Amino acid sequence: MTSQFNKKSEAWSARFSEPVSDLVKRYTASVFFDNRMASVDIQGSLAHAEMLSAQNIISAQDYADIQRGMAQIQEEIATGKFEWLLDLEDVHLNIEKRLTELVGDAGKRLHTGRSRNDQVATDIRLYMRNAIDNIVELLRALRGALIDLAEKNAATILPGFTHMQVAQPITFGHHILAYVKCSDAIPSACRIAANASIACHWALPHWLALPSLSTANASPKH
Fold this sequence. Notes:
The protein is mainly α.
């Protein structure tokens, strides 16, 4: 398996008399930006290895070796000792090569029953899930800060504007709460009854219209 990795650049050049240029390698490689997915790549591989072991497709010893090898790779990445190779193009091949160096044939058998497309798609989903969780936490912190600011300025008068014309006065606190709702939108639904900048003084229970608009949600701005 190691020799296969070493001959990868030669394989790409099979139809040519000269090896692939460094410019083409840099253009086609993704390792220097997709290495951010290393932790989820390892997570996905360990889950796959667990499944292979549970199905008796790989031995318990192979599974233990894969776990040991991945633990060392995680440590090397965390401490900056892991060597990312341009010739191996992406995070997946780099980790696979290092695992095979550490545990031998057990590393080769990790790829059993799994295509590269499956591995890449799984990694991206795991990475995006983690990223979304982090963004949600940041949005919660932002909303909390905006609510604190709105409470402190609940009585601070602010002129309202509509189409660049002076309109009904509002409070700065009320204006800030509009940005709180911007960070709490429901993307899968359509909201109704949102004013340009100032709430209507009429008592309008817009939720009474929702039964006729099955995909809509009433805006809490009122």
